[in-house]
Structures are given as structure tokens and as C-alpha cells.
């Protein structure tokens, strides 16, 4: 419907206004080079052309004016009447948008972003269409290259992940098999060595007794390594079973520390701080004894020049946790080495500690055992100052 103002305006003035509007449109888009911007009449014939349209589609204004815009479409789309359907959609919905193939004058395809907008006159009648086309060929080519690169990288990552998985499986198999294969000979060695030490096979001279004592100590070390290997294999295969018992952590820490005292040199001091009240936890005692032994043994080994080793138990009833801190005044750990501290076989070897024995399994195993108990094991350290291990466990329910 026309408004009163429209009905009072003479027809020739409306036509003049439309021509002026059309001219302003032409002036606005004429110099645009990155977009093909042109008008179509109601039948789809080209009625205006800009510099961008000539650059993208290669037709001059003289060549294209009056020709149907389907000339820009591949033959299959012309045969399927796609250009005409696009105009119908633009009329029905106000505009039509898509990305697809279009043709240049020389027949080469280019990937285009297309917007067709229906234009209406003052009476609401269809006056034609405005068409905007952008050449996205290079962007699409780059995107496809990027997608191909991503696919290649993804395949590489998957292959790397597969190899790492195979390697981890092989490591686990080795841990399990090596542990079982070593267990038998070590049991025999320790059995006969114990018989020698106890005099079952006859009396030994002093030198022989000292030698047997060394063999016994080394066989115990080897058995401890086998235990670590087996425990690590159980964890990785999901076969670890915890036998939890209500335990006062003060007793377990105290007993573990006492076992360490004979190994201390004259330069070491071991201090154990225990709370007055019971620090009750539900734990697998042997597994936690292993963890505490690893932490205290680690503090001793990495304090070659002596110093204070302190083990502190705290019952933090408000947070529902029991904590154990093991600190030393040893050689410490560099910030760049900390991320590998708890990794499997992640033994940190450098000029300061290359002479210190170890498998790189103790701390990894300790953290995994603590986590199986619902706790956490962390560490802070400073080279030349020392290291602090912080063990956190949930308090026993109802304690």
C-alpha cells in the first residue's frame, strides 16, 4: 500500500528519485575491486557492473550488460535451473546466500561467496536484484591445504600415540617378565647366603662373614627392586588390590624411621615429629610402609653431605586429612627437572647425583600408591638447599 505522501507525489518525481537512487548506488560501488557488486533486472539480466565484477568475472561492462546472470554458473546448474531458483528464494525470503562454484569468462571455475537481495519499488513491487559476489578461491585453497596439513599431523600424532602405547605395553611386559624371572634366582641366592650367615653350612671366618653380610644386603636391595617392578606392573595392568586397615600413622611412620636409623652416617640427624593424638587412616600398611621408606631413603641418599632429615606427621582434622612431610638439606632438584620427578624411570641424573644408585621407579610407585589411597604426593625443592615431599591422605571415616 502507498502512503498519503506517496499518492501526493507525482509519478515523474518518483521516477526521478529512483533514478537518482540508482545513480548513487552505481557511484558507491563502481570503484570497489574486492567484490563483484551489480544489479539484475526482474528477469535476472545484468543491469549494472562494477570494477570488482570485471576483475573477478573478467567481463567488461559492454560485454555483460543485458545478459542473463546464469552465464556465471556451470552447465549442470543451468540445466537444473539453479540460478532461477535462487531468484525465487530471494523474492520469497528477502535474500539468498551460499558458497559455490562460479565461472569466469574464460571458463575457469572459482569458489564464490554469493548474496542475492531482492529489491522492491515504492508500491512493494519487485524492482530487481542486487548481487554481491566475493572470490574465495585462494582462501578455500589455503583452507584445504590447512585441512590436509591438519589431517597429516593428526595421522602422525595417532601413529606416535600408537607407538607410544606399544612401547608402554612392551615396558609393562618387560617389568612383569623380568620381575618373575629375577625373583627365583634371588630367592635361591638369599636362601643359601642366609644359611652361610647362620652357620648352617659350617663356621665362617671373619672375612667370610663380612662378605656374606654384603651379599645379603645386596640381595635385599635386588629384591626391593624386583618388588618395585612387580608393584609397578600391577598398577599399570589394573591388578593392584589394597588391603586397608585402620592404622595410626604415628606408629607406621615411627617404625619406618627406626628402620632407617642404622643407615644414617654421623653427619645425618633424623628428627620425627608426631602429634599427641592418634592420626588414624584406612590404608594398606605394607604399601604405605613402602611409600614412607622410599621417601626417607630418598632423603638419605640425596643428602650425601649429611644434614637434618625431618619427618613430620600432622592430623588436620578440619580439612579431614592427615599429612606427612619429609624434608632434607640435600642437593635439591632444579626447576627444569621437577616435571620428571614422579615419572616412571624418571631418575634425574646429573653431575651432582650420578654416583647415587636408583631405578627411577621409587617416587613414581610412591605417588601411584598414594593416589590409589585417595591421597596425593607432591614435592618442592631448591638446588643446594634441599627437598620437601608432602604426602596427603584422607582421615579415617568417623575418626
What does this protein look like?
The protein has 399 residues and is α+β, with helices and mostly antiparallel strands. It folds into three domains: 4-135, Beta-Lactamase, CATH 3.30.450; 142-236, Helix Hairpins (Orthogonal Bundle); 245-394, Heat Shock Protein 90 (2-Layer Sandwich), CATH 3.30.565.10. The chain has eleven helices and eleven strands. It has helices spanning 4-8, 11-29, 51-57, 61-64, 75-79, 82-93, 137-198, 206-236, 249-260, 285-301, 362-372, and strands spanning 35-40, 95-103, 109-120, 126-135, 245-248, 268-273, 280-283, 307-316, 321-327, 376-382, 386-394. The strands form three sheets. A five-stranded mixed beta sheet has the order 6-8-9-11-10. A four-stranded antiparallel beta sheet has the order 1-4-3-2, with helices on both faces. A hairpin with a 5-residue loop joins strand 3 (109-120) and strand 4 (126-135). Helix 7 runs antiparallel to helix 8 and helix 9 (249-260) packs across helix 10. The longest helix is centred in the middle third of the chain and has 62 residues, at 137-198. The relative contact order is 0.07. The model is unreliable at 1-9 (pLDDT under 50).
Short synopsis of the structure:
With 399 residues, the chain is of the alpha+beta class. The chain has helices spanning 4-8, 11-29, 51-57, 61-64, 75-79, 82-93, 137-198, 206-236, 249-260, 285-301, 362-372, and strands at 35-40, 95-103, 109-120, 126-135, 245-248, 268-273, 280-283, 307-316, 321-327, 376-382, 386-394. It has a five-stranded mixed β-sheet.
